[in-house]
Protein backbone atom coordinates (compact mmCIF):
# COMPACT_ATOMS: atom_id res chain seq x y z
CA UNK A 1 0.00 0.00 0.00
CA UNK A 2 1.27 3.46 -0.91
CA UNK A 3 -0.86 5.93 1.00
CA UNK A 4 0.48 8.99 -0.75
CA UNK A 5 -0.56 7.68 -4.15
CA UNK A 6 -3.63 5.94 -2.75
CA UNK A 7 -2.57 2.64 -4.26
CA UNK A 8 -3.89 -0.24 -2.19
CA UNK A 9 -4.74 -3.85 -2.80
CA UNK A 10 -7.06 -5.29 -0.18
CA UNK A 11 -6.66 -8.88 0.95
CA UNK A 12 -9.96 -10.77 0.90
CA UNK A 13 -11.16 -12.20 4.18
CA UNK A 14 -14.48 -13.74 5.08
CA UNK A 15 -13.56 -14.63 8.67
CA UNK A 16 -16.42 -12.57 10.09
CA UNK A 17 -18.88 -14.98 8.41
CA UNK A 18 -17.24 -18.24 9.55
CA UNK A 19 -17.69 -18.90 13.28
CA UNK A 20 -15.31 -21.43 14.82
CA UNK A 21 -18.09 -23.81 15.84
CA UNK A 22 -19.80 -23.83 12.43
CA UNK A 23 -18.97 -27.52 12.04
CA UNK A 24 -20.68 -28.39 15.31
CA UNK A 25 -23.72 -26.34 14.31
CA UNK A 26 -23.91 -28.07 10.92
CA UNK A 27 -23.95 -31.46 12.66
CA UNK A 28 -26.64 -30.21 15.03
CA UNK A 29 -28.82 -29.05 12.14
CA UNK A 30 -28.54 -32.43 10.45
CA UNK A 31 -30.46 -34.02 13.32
CA UNK A 32 -32.60 -31.25 14.78
CA UNK A 33 -33.33 -28.77 11.98
CA UNK A 34 -37.13 -29.04 12.18
CA UNK A 35 -37.64 -29.58 15.90
CA UNK A 36 -39.08 -26.82 18.08
CA UNK A 37 -36.64 -27.90 20.78
CA UNK A 38 -33.86 -26.52 18.57
CA UNK A 39 -35.11 -22.95 18.84
CA UNK A 40 -33.39 -22.07 22.16
CA UNK A 41 -30.04 -23.39 20.93
CA UNK A 42 -30.31 -21.52 17.64
CA UNK A 43 -31.33 -18.34 19.43
CA UNK A 44 -28.36 -18.63 21.79
CA UNK A 45 -26.09 -19.21 18.81
CA UNK A 46 -27.50 -16.11 17.10
CA UNK A 47 -26.81 -14.09 20.24
CA UNK A 48 -23.19 -15.29 20.09
CA UNK A 49 -22.97 -14.15 16.47
CA UNK A 50 -24.31 -10.72 17.37
CA UNK A 51 -21.83 -10.33 20.22
CA UNK A 52 -18.85 -11.48 18.16
CA UNK A 53 -19.73 -9.92 14.81
CA UNK A 54 -19.85 -13.33 13.07
CA UNK A 55 -22.53 -14.81 10.84
CA UNK A 56 -23.71 -18.38 10.26
CA UNK A 57 -26.39 -18.01 7.62
CA UNK A 58 -27.47 -21.66 7.52
CA UNK A 59 -28.18 -21.65 11.24
CA UNK A 60 -30.05 -18.36 11.02
CA UNK A 61 -32.09 -19.54 8.05
CA UNK A 62 -33.01 -22.65 10.03
CA UNK A 63 -34.19 -20.44 12.89
CA UNK A 64 -36.40 -18.39 10.57
CA UNK A 65 -37.92 -21.61 9.21
CA UNK A 66 -38.69 -22.77 12.74
CA UNK A 67 -40.32 -19.43 13.53
CA UNK A 68 -42.62 -20.02 10.55
CA UNK A 69 -43.40 -23.54 11.70
CA UNK A 70 -43.95 -22.49 15.32
CA UNK A 71 -45.21 -18.87 15.20
CA UNK A 72 -45.89 -18.85 18.93
CA UNK A 73 -42.12 -19.02 19.44
CA UNK A 74 -41.28 -16.09 17.17
CA UNK A 75 -38.86 -13.55 18.61
CA UNK A 76 -39.19 -10.30 16.69
CA UNK A 77 -35.93 -8.87 18.00
CA UNK A 78 -33.99 -11.90 16.80
CA UNK A 79 -35.70 -11.83 13.42
CA UNK A 80 -34.42 -8.27 13.13
CA UNK A 81 -30.92 -9.44 14.05
CA UNK A 82 -30.93 -12.07 11.31
CA UNK A 83 -32.10 -9.56 8.73
CA UNK A 84 -29.35 -7.14 9.72
CA UNK A 85 -26.77 -9.90 9.35
CA UNK A 86 -28.16 -10.61 5.89
CA UNK A 87 -27.84 -6.94 4.91
CA UNK A 88 -24.18 -7.07 5.93
CA UNK A 89 -23.70 -10.15 3.71
CA UNK A 90 -24.75 -8.36 0.51
CA UNK A 91 -24.27 -8.71 -2.43
CA UNK A 92 -24.93 -12.38 -1.66
CA UNK A 93 -28.72 -13.04 -1.92
CA UNK A 94 -29.14 -13.92 1.75
CA UNK A 95 -31.46 -11.00 2.47
CA UNK A 96 -33.72 -12.09 -0.38
CA UNK A 97 -34.01 -15.57 1.09
CA UNK A 98 -34.67 -14.23 4.57
CA UNK A 99 -37.41 -11.90 3.35
CA UNK A 100 -39.43 -14.85 2.11
CA UNK A 101 -39.27 -16.41 5.56
CA UNK A 102 -40.66 -13.40 7.42
CA UNK A 103 -44.48 -13.13 7.39
CA UNK A 104 -45.78 -10.00 5.67
CA UNK A 105 -48.05 -9.29 8.63
CA UNK A 106 -45.02 -9.16 10.92
CA UNK A 107 -43.18 -6.82 8.56
CA UNK A 108 -46.15 -4.46 8.51
CA UNK A 109 -46.51 -4.56 12.29
CA UNK A 110 -42.85 -4.18 13.23
CA UNK A 111 -41.19 -0.92 12.20
CA UNK A 112 -37.66 -2.15 12.94
CA UNK A 113 -38.07 -5.21 10.73
CA UNK A 114 -39.63 -3.17 7.93
CA UNK A 115 -36.88 -0.55 8.20
CA UNK A 116 -34.12 -3.15 7.97
CA UNK A 117 -35.65 -4.67 4.84
CA UNK A 118 -36.15 -1.24 3.31
CA UNK A 119 -32.54 -0.22 3.96
CA UNK A 120 -31.28 -3.51 2.59
CA UNK A 121 -33.22 -2.96 -0.61
CA UNK A 122 -31.55 0.43 -1.02
CA UNK A 123 -28.12 -1.21 -0.97
CA UNK A 124 -29.31 -3.96 -3.31
CA UNK A 125 -30.53 -1.30 -5.72
CA UNK A 126 -27.33 0.74 -5.61
CA UNK A 127 -29.00 3.67 -3.84
CA UNK A 128 -26.20 4.03 -1.33
CA UNK A 129 -26.52 7.73 -0.52
CA UNK A 130 -30.24 7.27 0.10
CA UNK A 131 -29.36 4.45 2.52
CA UNK A 132 -27.44 6.94 4.65
CA UNK A 133 -30.00 9.74 4.44
CA UNK A 134 -32.76 7.36 5.53
CA UNK A 135 -31.04 6.25 8.73
CA UNK A 136 -28.02 4.23 7.69
CA UNK A 137 -25.75 5.43 10.48
CA UNK A 138 -28.31 4.64 13.17
CA UNK A 139 -28.82 1.24 11.56
CA UNK A 140 -25.07 0.55 11.62
CA UNK A 141 -24.82 1.53 15.28
CA UNK A 142 -27.47 -1.02 16.26
CA UNK A 143 -25.21 -4.10 16.13
CA UNK A 144 -21.56 -5.01 16.66
CA UNK A 145 -19.64 -5.08 13.39
CA UNK A 146 -22.58 -3.87 11.31
CA UNK A 147 -20.86 -0.68 10.14
CA UNK A 148 -18.00 -2.69 8.67
CA UNK A 149 -20.44 -5.18 7.22
CA UNK A 150 -22.40 -2.45 5.45
CA UNK A 151 -19.19 -0.93 4.11
CA UNK A 152 -18.15 -4.34 2.77
CA UNK A 153 -21.61 -4.86 1.29
CA UNK A 154 -21.56 -1.55 -0.57
CA UNK A 155 -18.06 -2.15 -1.90
CA UNK A 156 -19.06 -5.67 -2.93
CA UNK A 157 -22.13 -4.42 -4.78
CA UNK A 158 -20.09 -1.75 -6.55
CA UNK A 159 -17.44 -4.32 -7.53
CA UNK A 160 -20.12 -6.37 -9.26
CA UNK A 161 -21.46 -3.38 -11.15
CA UNK A 162 -18.33 -1.42 -12.04
CA UNK A 163 -14.77 -1.96 -13.15
CA UNK A 164 -13.87 1.59 -12.12
CA UNK A 165 -15.65 4.35 -10.20
CA UNK A 166 -14.61 7.87 -9.17
CA UNK A 167 -13.46 8.22 -5.56
CA UNK A 168 -15.93 11.02 -4.80
CA UNK A 169 -18.76 8.64 -5.65
CA UNK A 170 -17.20 5.91 -3.51
CA UNK A 171 -16.89 8.32 -0.59
CA UNK A 172 -20.54 9.32 -0.93
CA UNK A 173 -21.60 5.68 -1.16
CA UNK A 174 -19.69 4.74 1.99
CA UNK A 175 -20.55 7.99 3.80
CA UNK A 176 -16.87 8.65 4.52
CA UNK A 177 -14.26 11.16 3.42
CA UNK A 178 -12.11 10.36 0.40
CA UNK A 179 -9.14 10.02 2.76
CA UNK A 180 -10.91 7.17 4.57
CA UNK A 181 -11.51 5.07 1.45
CA UNK A 182 -8.16 3.19 1.53
CA UNK A 183 -8.81 1.95 5.07
CA UNK A 184 -12.34 0.88 4.17
CA UNK A 185 -11.07 -1.01 1.13
CA UNK A 186 -8.26 -2.68 3.05
CA UNK A 187 -10.72 -3.91 5.69
CA UNK A 188 -13.08 -5.39 3.09
CA UNK A 189 -12.93 -8.65 1.09
CA UNK A 190 -13.06 -6.62 -2.13
CA UNK A 191 -9.84 -6.21 -4.09
CA UNK A 192 -8.97 -3.02 -5.89
CA UNK A 193 -6.66 -0.05 -6.08
CA UNK A 194 -7.14 3.69 -6.03
CA UNK A 195 -5.31 5.62 -8.71
CA UNK A 196 -5.98 8.50 -11.07
CA UNK A 197 -8.87 9.61 -8.89
CA UNK A 198 -10.79 6.36 -9.25
CA UNK A 199 -11.26 3.06 -7.47
CA UNK A 200 -10.40 0.33 -9.94
CA UNK A 201 -11.69 -3.10 -8.95
CA UNK A 202 -9.42 -6.09 -9.44
CA UNK A 203 -10.87 -9.02 -11.39
CA UNK A 204 -9.87 -11.61 -8.80
CA UNK A 205 -10.87 -15.25 -8.97
CA UNK A 206 -13.22 -14.65 -6.07
CA UNK A 207 -14.99 -11.80 -7.86
CA UNK A 208 -15.29 -13.84 -11.05
CA UNK A 209 -16.67 -16.76 -9.07
CA UNK A 210 -19.26 -14.52 -7.43
CA UNK A 211 -20.39 -13.24 -10.81
CA UNK A 212 -20.53 -16.75 -12.27
CA UNK A 213 -22.42 -18.07 -9.26
CA UNK A 214 -25.16 -15.42 -9.37
CA UNK A 215 -27.46 -17.57 -11.53
CA UNK A 216 -27.02 -20.67 -9.37
CA UNK A 217 -27.59 -18.62 -6.21
CA UNK A 218 -30.87 -17.28 -7.57
CA UNK A 219 -31.85 -20.80 -8.57
CA UNK A 220 -31.28 -21.84 -4.96
CA UNK A 221 -33.65 -19.06 -3.90
CA UNK A 222 -36.32 -20.46 -6.21
CA UNK A 223 -35.80 -23.91 -4.71
CA UNK A 224 -36.16 -22.41 -1.24
CA UNK A 225 -39.41 -20.72 -2.20
CA UNK A 226 -40.93 -23.96 -3.48
CA UNK A 227 -39.87 -25.80 -0.33
CA UNK A 228 -41.32 -23.17 1.98
CA UNK A 229 -44.49 -22.21 0.16
CA UNK A 230 -46.76 -24.10 2.59
CA UNK A 231 -44.98 -22.56 5.59
CA UNK A 232 -45.24 -19.04 4.16
CA UNK A 233 -49.02 -19.25 4.47
CA UNK A 234 -48.83 -19.73 8.23
UniProtKB/TrEMBL annotation:
The record's Gene Ontology biological-process terms are: regulation of translational initiation
Which GO molecular-function terms appear in the entry? ribosome binding; translation initiation factor activity
Q: Which Pfam families match?
A: CSN8_PSD8_EIF3K
Question: Can you give the residue ranges of the CSN8/PSMD8/EIF3K domain?
Answer: 97-181
Alphabetical list of InterPro entries matching this protein: ARM-type_fold, CSN8_PSD8_EIF3K, eIF3k, Transl_init_fac_sub12_N_euk
An example of a Gene Ontology cellular component annotation for this protein is: eukaryotic translation initiation factor 3 complex
Can you say what this protein is called? CSN8/PSMD8/EIF3K domain-containing protein
